[in-house]
Amino acid sequence: MTTEVHALAAFYRSRGGDTAARLVGARLAALWPSLPGQSVLGLGWAAPYLGQWREARRCVALVPGHLPGAHRLRPTEAGGGALVAEEEYLPFPDDSFDRVLLVHGLEAAENARRLLREVWRVLRDDGRLMLVVPNRVGMWAHLDRTPFGHGQPYSRGQIELLLSRHLFRAERREAALFVPPYGLRFLGSAAPVLERCGRALCPRLAGVIIVEAQKDLFAAVPAGAVAMRRRVVAAASG
């Protein structure tokens, strides 16, 4: 089941959604503290997180057109100048972006394989992908009152295997949302403290898994590609 885009917008406008965004955003900033002069693409519902890279040369948010209500979005709901397009055919040339942030995207994708192939295509040769996905064993994946409780959750092993099959090499791992998905709007300044306690006491129970992966130019033949067999043709001597 995919989350309706207006539910995503409403969640991040709420106090609880703002708290969740700050906790996830802190871990994203730990991996990508500064992106001066770089081009960044946000896929899924990444607008709440793109603002922390204001020094980037370009930030583009793209909302998948298959999400219910996507084509009815007003610009302010989509996070400024967000685009609406089909995730299987990203409207950008090859090698367009230095970084891609995928949040609320992979777990809801109708074709995860095609989505990752498109991300690989639009990334530059040294480009990096940051994935944020619900953790299969975390509480957040089992409560549908938040966007992280919708779609297909993953374990770390599953997400890294999926990446490797689609020409990405997982390099750094993070996790966030160790706080329970209850009463978020009341946590306030206590949320970061509780988050650190959860990280120390139950590291496997994070609400989301975060993986940074690099475009792998030296991997085998891309998934879905047809390998060409070499044929030896004997030429008749004159």
What does the secondary structure layout of this molecule look like, with pairings?
Elements: H1 5-13, H2 15-31, E1 39-44, H3 47-50, E2 58-64, E3 83-85, E4 97-103, H4 112-122, E5 123-134, H5 156-165, E6 168-176, H6 191-201, E7 208-215
Parallel strand pairs: 1-2, 1-4, 2-3, 4-5
Antiparallel strand pairs: 5-7, 6-7
Helix pairs in contact: 1-2
Written description of the protein model:
With 238 residues, the protein is of the alpha/beta class. The chain has helices at residues 5-13, 15-31, 47-50, 112-122, 156-165, 191-201; strands at residues 39-44, 58-64, 83-85, 97-103, 123-134, 168-176, 208-215. It has a single domain (5-215), classed as 3-Layer(aba) Sandwich (Rossmann fold). It is 26% helix and 22% strand. A 7-stranded mixed beta sheet has the order 3-2-1-4-5-7-6, with helices on both faces. Helix 3 (47-50) links the parallel strand 1 (39-44) and strand 2 (58-64). The chain starts with a helix and ends in a 23-residue tail after the last strand. Mean pLDDT is 84; it is low at 70-80 and 225-238.
Radius of gyration: 19 Å
- Helices, by number, come to 6
Main sheet: strands, sense, barrel: 7 strands, mixed
Assigned CATH superfamily: Vaccinia Virus protein VP39
- Please state roughly what percent of the residues sit in beta strands, choosing from under 5%, 5-15%, 15-25%, 25-35%, 35-45% or over 45%: 15-25%
Helix content: 25-40%
What is the CATH C-level name? Answer: Alpha Beta
**DSSP strand count:** 7
Secondary-structure element string: HHEHEEEHEHEHE
Residue stretches low in confidence (pLDDT < 50, at least 5 long) are: 70-80, 225-238
Question: N- to C-terminal separation?
Answer: 67 Å
Output mean pLDDT. Answer: 84
Quote the CATH topology: Rossmann fold
Order of neighbouring strands in the sheet with most strands: 3-2-1-4-5-7-6
Shape: globular
Which architecture name does CATH use? Answer: 3-Layer(aba) Sandwich
